[in-house]
Each structure stands twice: as C-alpha cells, then as structure tokens.
Design a protein that fits this description.
Elements (H helix, E strand, L loop, with lengths): L2 E4 L5 H4 L4 E3 L3 E4 L8 E5 L5 E7 L4 E7 L7 H17 L10 E6 L8 E6 L2 E6 L2 H5 L1 H11 L6 E4 L13 E4 L6 E4 L2 E4 L15 H10 L4 E5 L5 H8 L4 E6 L2 H14 L6 E5 L2 H7 L10 E4 L11 H18 L4 E7 L6 H14 L4 E8 L17 E7 L1
Parallel strand pairs: 1-4, 9-10, 14-15, 14-17, 15-16, 17-18
Antiparallel strand pairs: 1-3, 2-6, 4-5, 5-6, 7-8, 8-9, 10-11, 12-13, 18-20, 19-20
Helix pairs in contact: 2-4, 5-6, 6-7, 9-10
Length: 393
C-alpha cells in the first residue's frame, strides 16, 4: 500500500479521529498513487496514522480506518455488519411497519463517501468518492452476504454525485421492478432511477410522523413537496385539506401518485406545479386558500461556504413570506438541509424573518436528522438537517 506523508504537526486532527485529511496537510506522497486508491497516511516522523481513499481536491484523503489493515472483503463485511446491527438495535431493520431506512450514512458509519438506502428488499447505493465507486462491486457483494434475508438486490446510482466519472446506474446484484417502500405503514413509490438522491428523502421520517400529530382538522400547505411525504402523513393525520407545491412537474406527478396509493379518490388533496415564492405571494387572494399549517422543506440553499451569505438571505426571505401569510394560531414546520448552515445560522435567519414580519413566534420543537443518519462524534460536520416547529401568534 502506497503512503502519503503529512507535514509536521498536521496529524493533530487525525489523532482526534477526524476522518478528513485536507490537501494542505500533505507534505509529499509516493509516486504513482491513483485517484480512489487506498493509501497509508503517516506523520512527518513516519508514524502510522490512518488508511483511507485518496482523491484529488480539497479533501485529499477520506479515512476508512485508524488501524493499519488492508481494505479487503473482510473490512467491508465488518463495517456493513456494524451498520446493520445498529439499525436492528434502533428497530428499523426487519421492522413490520417500515422497510425504508438508511443503512450506511457516510462518516456517521465510518464509511466516508458511501450512502446506502434500503427500500424493501432493494438497497440503493450511492458513491460520493472515487474510492467508493471503484469498490462498488465488492461492497455490493459483501452487503448481500451480510444482510441475507433482508437485501436481495443492490442498485447503483452515482451519476449525479460523480458526474465527471460518468458512472452507469444499474443493478450490481439481482434486479427488481418493485419500487414501493413502506414507512410507518404508509406506502411510497421510490424513483431510484431518475429521482433525487437515492429516490426518496428518508431523513424526514420522524419529522413527518410529528407533522401527522399536528395535522388533524388543519389546512396544510406542503412547499417543495418532492414525493409528497409530508402531504401523505398530513392526510392520514386528518387534515381538512392538503395542498402540495413544487416547481418540478415530475415531483408533482410523484406526489399525486403517492397520495392515490394511500388515499385513492380523496378530494382533500390538490397539487400545484409552481414556483414557491409566487405561490406564497398568492395566498389569501381571491379564490386562494389560506393555510394554518405550512411546511417549508426546500433543497439545500448552500452547497459550499461561499454560498452561505446568499443562502441565509434566501431562508430569511422564504420564512418571512410564510410568516406574513399564516394566520394567528398557525404552525410552521421549517427546515434547512444545507450542511454549511449551522443550527445557529438557521435559527437566526428564521428569527430575523419573524421580526421582519412582525409576528410573535414560539419554538415548539427543534428537529434534526433521525438515528439512521448518525453523526460521528469526531465529525460534527455530519449534522446537516435542522428544523423548527413554530407556533405563530
């Protein structure tokens, strides 16, 4: 295994088990290291530090282990077995009510660059690093072996996460046309072929369940609805009406399909393919509904730190519009999935929006990602989803 040598003193974060090595920390490397290759990382004095996948860019090495071991079939089996065991402990793997959950969450499961979501008996695997892409077949084989009786098929979907590699989406193991997953007894069509991420946002499962509790008798507006997850839960919760909005015609099609799958011929639901800001502006006008429960779950406004300032302005503007439209006694579920936006950043943006709208607001719940999206205690950057449930006077 080839080696990468750190500059003097640059091993400090690694001694605290942080799983990233930045390019600026590297003094030199052995010749002939290929992108995606597993490498040994040593200090300036030659002491072993870690083993990880090398890749050109700001994050030069993603650490796989702090033990001096080979990255082989035995390694993949051990890590995948550990991830599966945790999902069994928290009651997700083999649950009768839910067969939709995240099995591997990158750094949170000590497998940086790898995401695996489970939908029924199909695993959808996504690589976020070249190293994981190159190991995809070995990982898929180990996964099916470790999860016998749970996973029969492995679908690979990395065209959007590694576009410069032009990887082909497709089944690595098995094959299935069944694309319906179950979450808390509700059914959802999962478009792992063309949908965003792995086809469904499994990270909002617990927050959708909370919304159901608040929905009875409410007029619900689900903005940025995507596949209509929040809308389906609101329907089951007894909402008076549910309106779903997304600028994507494909998302609206998926939402309508999921509503029909769970609540056929139910006239309480209506979907609109429209820009979010324009739709919010229309609320309360002639022939327009008003809503006493609004969900704001937009896509990431900031993909990198350079976009943080504009992202916070966007969150403020969006939430201000919602505050201006929601009646007294209304409930607002508002979220950010931008990793570079901290909880404090997001809260300040929402509080600014409330002040600009001249509304009194109380926090009922502070929301976050669920247990199957664990945060490595040594990698706080893994905490990406944050949300607030607000009572508006």
């Amino acid at each position: 295994m080839k080696q990468i040598y750190l500059k003097k003193g640059k091993e400090e974060s690694l001694l605290r088990f942080h799983p990233w090595i930045f390019s600026g920390a590297i003094h030199h490397a052995d010749e002939g290291i290929s992108e995606g290759e597993a490498v040994r990382v040593v200090s300036a004095t030659g002491d072993f530090i870690a083993v990880g996948h090398y890749q050109q860019g700001s994050i030069a090495v993603r650490v796989l282990t702090f033990n001096d071991v080979e990255i082989d079939t035995s390694f993949w089996r051990s890590r995948l077995a550990s991830a599966l065991q945790m999902r069994k402990v928290i009651g997700l793997a083999n649950s009768k009510e839910s067969d939709t959950y995240r099995l591997v969450h990158g750094e949170g499961d000590n497998l940086p660059g790898l995401i695996i979501d489970i939908y029924g008996h199909t695993a959808v695997m996504q690589a976020h690093s070249i190293g994981m892409h190159l190991c995809r077949k070995e990982i898929a084989t180990a996964l099916v072996d470790v999860a016998k009786g749970i996973i029969d098929n492995v679908y690979y979907k990395s065209e959007t996460t590694l576009p410069f590699m032009e990887p082909e989406n497709g089944f690595l193991v098995g094959g299935s046309e069944e694309n319906i997953g179950t979450e808390n007894g509700l059914k959802f069509r999962v478009d792992w072929l063309r949908g965003q991420k792995t086809g469904f946002f499994v990270d909002q499962r617990e927050n959708r369940a909370l919304l159901e509790v608040f929905s009875k008798g409410k007029r619900v507006l689900n903005m940025f609805c995507y596949t209509g997850g929040f809308s389906v839960y609101a329907m089951r919760g007894g909402a008076q009406l549910v309106h779903s909005v997304d600028s994507s015609a494909k998302a609206i099609e998926l939402t309508r399909s999921n509503i029909e799958l769970n609540f056929p011929n139910d006239s309480r639901h209506e979907a609109f393919c429209e820009d979010a800001f324009k739709f919010l502006d229309s609320i309360g006008r002639e022939n327009s509904s008003t809503y006493d429960l609004i969900i704001l779950d937009p896509p990431a406004f900031a993909k990198h730190r350079g976009a943080l300032h504009n992202a916070l302005k966007g969150y403020t503007r969006l939430n201000q519009k919602a505050f201006e439209k929601i009646p007294a006694g209304g409930i607002l579920f508002t979220f950010s999935c931008s990793q570079v936006v901290t909880k404090d950043h997001f809260r300040n943006a929402v509080f600014t929006a409330a002040a600009l709208a001249h509304r009194k607001v109380r926090i009922l719940h502070q929301l976050h990602q669920p247990a199957d999206h664990p945060i490595n205690i040594y990698h706080p950057e893994g905490e990406y989803l944050k949300g607030l449930v607000l009572y508006v006077e």
